Amino acid sequence: MTTRQPIQAPLARHAMAYVLAGGRGTRLMELTERRVKPAVFFGAKARIIDFALSNALNSGIRRIGVATQYKAHSLIRHLQRGWNFMRAERNESFDILPASQRVEGSGWYSGTADAVYQNLDIIEAHGSRYMVILAGDHVYKMDYEVMLQQHEASGADVTVACVEVPRLEASAFGVMAVDDAGRIQSFLEKPADPPAMPGKPDKALASMGIYVFNTDFLAEALRQDAADPDSEHDFGKNIVPRIVTHGRAVAHRFTDSCVTSGEEAEHYWRDVGTVDAYWQANIDLTDVVPSLDLYDRDWPIWTYSEVTPPAKFVFNDEGRRGTALDSLVSGGCIVSGSRVNRSVLCSNVRVNSFCQVEGAVLLPGVVVRRHSRLRDVVVDSGVELPEGLVVGEDAAEDARRFRRTERGITLITQPMVEALKQASPGA
């Protein structure tokens, strides 16, 4: 057994964060037609990936790599604009790592483990003692230093962050069973019938897609996995289950490292991988005391901040009054003689006169023409909605024209609007 030499805290200074940001995100439907899921806008200003990256930075990690793959242009552009402040002379680094045939015979990343294996030479050159592997598509605030401390103290080969989720939703995650000491006894990747937690028949213990390894151990495990022709080269399907069987895998409870400002009512972690979940997580931010505090200056969510003029609300006439209540409104927005309620407006949105907008997530550059009524919608960036459009009042009509979910959320993209115009040339 390897003898571990103690390292003085903080351990994050001896760690590298590696963010897996290449997944297609197909459950977000047309919202990921032009961009990968981690690059999708969230909370009026940020992108989804900013949460994992901000957690790493706020935890004290100063070496970060991001593995990209599908439809990566929007993501790479965002990373270059918003995360280019890391400085080599301060012993910091920020590497964007697209699949680039760095390993002989390789092409696209064939799995999450392969996305790390193909860049082992870069990783090992940094000389970091620990590797923190992160999923780039979840929304949460977490101090990875706490997890690193547990990993070092427990002598684990891998430490896996976990969170309790409704059992019926757990088939989208890796599901684990642990003993009283926190050691993982079994690990099933995306089981069709997720096992329940003891004493909690409606809950399952799900992996958050966050793993801590000692770098030397991880490198050897990845090399062995790469040589296995039967492996899918995936952390959840291959690497972690193998360690559960043949090594020491330990669970880390999210409740131990979740960062809150003291006002939140719960430990917040969301997989915003469906249109319904994405809409709900955004709209929840409009609560008076939201479960996710974006205003916590002690744990800021870093992102690229576009230079925009202040938001503007104009006209104060009866029947034509520009207002926004219980809403997040970004810079560059103009609400002109319309009523916006419980909505999230990203930068440079225009809501023209005589409109009613409620329960809307409007991505950057959306234009809502006059006399429109929108309820429970997600509108993709740059979409110009035609004058007089009504959405959210006739389910059958919404489903015919746009993408409508079972929960009644309507997703609208520019190709859908163009198809609508072609079907009604006189509109």
CATH architectural name of the largest domain: Alpha-Beta Complex
CATH homologous group name of the largest domain: Spore Coat Polysaccharide Biosynthesis Protein SpsA, Chain A
SS-based structural class?
alpha/beta
Q: Helix share of residues?
A: 10-25%
Strand content: 25-35%
In the CATH hierarchy, the third-tier topology of the largest domain is known as: Spore Coat Polysaccharide Biosynthesis Protein SpsA, Chain A
CATH class of the largest domain: Alpha Beta
- Gyration radius, to the nearest Å? 23 Å
Provide the domain count.
2
Major sheet description? 9 strands, mixed
Sum up the overall morphology in one term: globular
Give the N-to-C terminal Cα separation.
74 Å
Overall strand count: 29
Please work out how many helical segments DSSP would assign.
10
Uncertain stretches: none
Describe this structure in words.
The protein is an alpha/beta fold and 427 residues long. The chain folds into two domains: 11-286, Spore Coat Polysaccharide Biosynthesis Protein SpsA, Chain A (Alpha-Beta Complex); 312-423, 3 Solenoid (UDP N-Acetylglucosamine Acyltransferase, domain 1). The chain contains ten helices and 29 strands. Strands 17, 18, 20, 21, 23, 25, 27, 28 and 29 form a nine-stranded mixed beta sheet that branches. The protein is globular and about 70 Å long. The model has no long low-confidence stretch (mean pLDDT 94). Its EC number is 2.7.7.27. It catalyses: alpha-D-glucose 1-phosphate + ATP + H(+) = ADP-alpha-D-glucose + diphosphate.
